[in-house]
Write a structure and sequence with these properties.
Blueprint: H1 12-30, H2 34-38, H3 50-58, H4 66-87, H5 89-110, H6 120-130, H7 142-161, H8 168-189
Helix pairs in contact: 1-4, 3-5, 4-5, 4-6, 5-8, 6-8, 7-8
C-alpha cells in the first residue's frame, strides 16, 4: 500500500516571514511605493513619530521589487527551516527581530540620508549562523572561517568600490550578528 504524500507546514516563523514579506511587496506594488515609504522602509524620520520605531522592525519585510524579494527569500527558505529546526521557532523570531532592530537603528543614526528595506541583514545572519550547525566545543569549523572571510571580504570590497544601491553595512552587521548568535547558542548548549 502506497502512502499518500501530504504537504507539511514546517518552519512556522520562516513561512510566516516569507508570507508577510510577500504581502508587503504586493501592497507596495498596489500603493505604488507608498506602503514601503510608510511602513516597510527605515530612514531618518522624527523620533516623535511612532512609525519610526515600528519601521525599525518592519523594514526587513519590505523589498524594492520582485528581484530583490526573490533573491532574499530564496536564502531565507533554504537556510531558515534548517535553522528553525535546530534552534527553534522562538530563537528564529528573536534573531529576525534583533537583526531588524540593530540594522534599522544603525542605518537611522549613521546613514540618515539613506532609506533601508529588505531582509538582506537577516539573510546574512542566517548564512553565518548556518555554519555553526555542526559546531563542536573547542573546534572552529574551516567552513565557518572560509564563509566569514569570503563574505566579509566581498562586502567590504563592494562597500568600498561599488556604487550600487545595496546596504553592504547591513549585510556585514547581519553576518556578524549571525556569528555572535552561533557562538552564544553553541555556548548555551554546552554541558
Amino acid at each position: 500500500m502506497k502512502k499518500k504524500l501530504k504537504i507539511s507546514f514546517n518552519s512556522v516563523v520562516i513561512l510566516g516571514f516569507v508570507t508577510l514579506s510577500f504581502l508587503a511587496l504586493a501592497i507596495n506594488y498596489l500603493t505604488r511605493g507608498a506602503s514601503n515609504q510608510l511602513l516597510f522602509m527605515t530612514y531618518h524620520s522624527s523620533l516623535l513619530s511612532p512609525l519610526t520605531y515600528i519601521r525599525f522592525f518592519t523594514h526587513v519585510l519590505g523589498h524594492s521589487g520582485w528581484e530583490h524579494f526573490i533573491g532574499n527569500m530564496m536564502y531565507v527558505l533554504l537556510l531558515g527551516p534548517l535553522l528553525e529546526e535546530k534552534y527553534g521557532s522562538l530563537k528564529m523570531l528573536e534573531i529576525i527581530g534583533i537583526v531588524a532592530l540593530v540594522t534599522g537603528i544603525i542605518n537611522y543614526i549613521f546613514f540618515w540620508n539613506v532609506a533601508l528595506c529588505g531582509a538582506s541583514g537577516v539573510v546574512f545572519a542566517f548564512i553565518l549562523l548556518s555554519s555553526f550547525t555542526r559546531f563542536k566545543e573547542g573546534e572552529i569549523p574551516l567552513t565557518f572561517i572560509l564563509v566569514a572571510i569570503i563574505f566579509l571580504g566581498q562586502q567590504v570590497y563592494y562597500g568600498m568600490f561599488m556604487q550600487d544601491n545595496i546596504s553592504n553595512l547591513s549585510h556585514i552587521i547581519g553576518g556578524i550578528m549571525g556569528a555572535v548568535f552561533g557562538f552564544v547558542f553553541m555556548k548555551n548548549q554546552s554541558p
